[in-house]
Amino acid sequence: MLCLPFLASSARAGEATSPLLLTSPKTQPERERLLHLVIGSPEGVRSVIHALHKLQYAEQATWSQVITIPDSGMLITPEQGEVFSLLRRDSR
Hints:
The chain is low in regular secondary structure.
């Protein structure tokens, strides 16, 4: 199950202004790790997770809990050589 080891708050105790930091733990050498990030309303995120489950792409239980993004935002720090692609799409 994907859980909080991927998410580390860079805030110290009592600080609420630091962004959420997304980290990528090392994977097994023979496997490539791909991170799927779904950002939207809680209902929208749950809807996408459910749709991917129905398509037999990913079990619902393998997703992390829904995490609120702090007002300060979120930082994603890729490994060297990684790339990023983003699809923005309006729900129906």
